[in-house]
Amino acid sequence: MSQRRAVLKTIALRKVYRTGSLDVPALQGIDMEIKAGEFVSIMGPSGCGKTTLLQILGGLSAPTSGQVFIDGVDLASVSDAVRTRMRCLKIGFVFQRFNLLSTLTVQANIEIARQIYGGEPVTRDEVGDLLEIVHLRHKLDYKPLELSVGEQQRVAIARALVNKPAMILADEPTGNLDSRNSEQVLRLLSDLNREKQQTIVMITHNPEAAEMGNRVIEMLDGQIRSHGTVAELVEEPERARSQAR
Ligand code: ADP
Ligand code: MG
Asked: The domain 6-244 belongs to what CATH superfamily?
């Protein structure tokens, strides 16, 4: 694992939201590294800074201080135009609320993720192949609201893959799904990681979902509280109790 290249690295990342006279310190010094092929789960209580971190990792928002390197490139060192291009080419986003455009067909929703940075148009066959991965080739001409929520999230995953991203960033991708659909979406992400070595960073509240990954980063109050496996997170309170005896 250690010889693998780092797809993503942060150094002393801080984010302060300034809202009127109030400063909200959302991230307070995050140092982390994600290697190619990893599936990392980020856990932590609501408000601890998980979404803020993911948005900064994906270049959707800028840190107050500190650095983000994507494939070795410091996001702050490039122009807005290059950063936007990097975001489109290197990162596939999957959101809790899917963020599909409801007036467009499934095919158009996927095409647009390529058009947005001016890349070669995606052919109908390519869209079909992407939908095959998420078992929805037959829904090419449907609109999002004609699909179940689980299917909508699977379309969003296909869309995230359209530019062959170096990594997928998913913010509570199963947060709006029932257990059966959650399971399907998690299995898809897990298959992508195992079979296609797709690098994935996923925020989740659910320890069972986190277990799909190879590693868990636990956050608390804008900081990383621990790195480890899900088993260690579950065992830790037990260990602390037995040491106290
Ligand atoms: P999480 O995803 O872990 O629930 P967030 O990253 O959304 O946490 O939020 C971290 C902290 O930053 C919270 O206190 C939240 O209220 C605050 N916050 C998030 N976004 C904004 C914003 N756009 N403006 C002001 N405060 C924000
Ligand atoms: Mg969040």
From this structure: P-loop containing nucleotide triphosphate hydrolases (3.40.50.300)
